[in-house]
Amino acid sequence: MEDSVMRERLREIPAVDEILRHERVVGLLEQMPRPLAVDAIRLVLDGLRQRIRQGEEVETSLPVVAEEAARAIVQRGRRSLRRAINATGVLLNTGLGRAVLAPQAVEAVCEVAGSHSVLEVEIETGRRGSRLAPVERLLRALTGAPAAAVVNNNAAAVLLALNTLAAGREVIISRGQLVEIGGQFRMPDVIHASGCRMVEVGTTNKTHLYDYEKAITPETALLLHVHPSNYRIVGFAEQVPLPDLVALGHQRGILVVSDLGSGSFFDVSRAGLSPEPTVPRIVATGVDLVTFSGDKLLGGPQAGLLLGGEEVIRRITRNPLMRALRCDKLTLAALEATLRLYLEEKTALQEVPILRALTRSLEEIEALAQQVAREAARPGLEVSVVATTCEVGGGSLPAEELPSFAVRVEVAGCSPEEVARSLRGGDPAIFGRIARDAFLLDMRAVSDQEADEVASALSRLTRPPDAECREVGTQESPS
């Protein structure tokens, strides 16, 4: 595009004031602050200018630009962190917040969020108490661990443990366990940040007990075992079992720490998945300390849980970093309520959403998918139920799949990408996945109430002439 033509096209873009006076935008200004609306409009105009400079053919008439600006204003007026429905087929979807809390945990959070709470006060004496005491009692009862502590996530738990127990000294770890834990954070980085010196032993695929034995020096502070909760090395591979590592550590007077990653109190093999060590089983090995996440297979809030001997936990809780990494009252309320459910396994299986999703019968999932397909059916919308598979996700049970059923959605004149974008823009935002040129809504993690919302959203999908595929009624007002 010639410079003169480009300048002319840029001059055709409506001004901010023109758009603010357009009837499509005026009504929205009554529902949200004007500065937010102006900012949204400017972003739209910046996008148009960029597309023109790249040589694209762009419609710049006032009605079209005002409509695009109105959609942007509505999106800007919504809370960024809002409810979503996870039909992606990834049960613990990190982008969608991982574990959904049980109703009892949600109730506990709401109760303490809207009032003062008994966080660090002993009811009987009225004196200052420990915010971790209630959770520690539950963790001891559920796992058999002598003592426990909680911080804000598992990476923090590992960092705090290493800094407390091995700062300035050597930490021995197998090369096959130098994992990346997500967000490009890697175990070697965590070890170095904790102030320890990392000593790698073995090879990527094979590490033997004698590799650890030969690496031990007077400077060795601990042996670190990382469970492969988010990866698998298969084939010609071998790692030292944790009980053998614990025996070596006890023999040589060296602490052994296990980073379990995605810890579970439930034997997932009962849901048809490959066996994974439960937290009580790891504690029973006699390991000095075990750490794991609260918002994965446990089904609680984001937290890092530490279980170990009384002296080890005492040292950890006295580390100044404990203050920086501690949990707030909302996290502790949700965690305590979640742990209470595990006192009766039957209750946990019924109430903890991730456990309910893992153990849900195929018949129930298929029936729910059929219900959504029936309720959503209308001319121009083709919905069908297809067999599929889903994964646990969230750094848990890699390479494991569960059978499931999904609703396959086709809208006349719309691509799968347009359907996905439309449903994401609704309220609640609905997330599915695109597979084999089709948009799928996997129903294993979708509750009965959410299924009604999915069916309602699908029934409103439409493609007006010469417009993008969109969901009727979701773009009219900010919420």
Task: List the keywords.
479 residues; alpha/beta; Aspartate Aminotransferase, domain 1; Aspartate Aminotransferase, domain 2; 3 domains; seven-stranded mixed β-sheet; four-stranded antiparallel β-sheet; 20 helices; 17% strand; globular; disordered C terminus
Word description of this protein:
- The strands form five sheets. The protein has a seven-stranded mixed sheet, sandwiched between helices.
- It has 20 helices and 17 strands.
- The chain has helices at 3-11, 16-21, 23-26, 34-53, 62-77, 103-113, 133-143, 154-166, 187-193, 209-215, 242-252, 279-284, 310-317, 321-325, 329-341, 345-351, 353-359, 362-376, 416-424, 448-459; strands spanning 84-86, 147-151, 170-174, 180-182, 185-186, 197-201, 220-226, 255-261, 289-293, 304-308, 381-390, 402-411, 429-431, 433-435, 438-442, 461-462, 470-471.
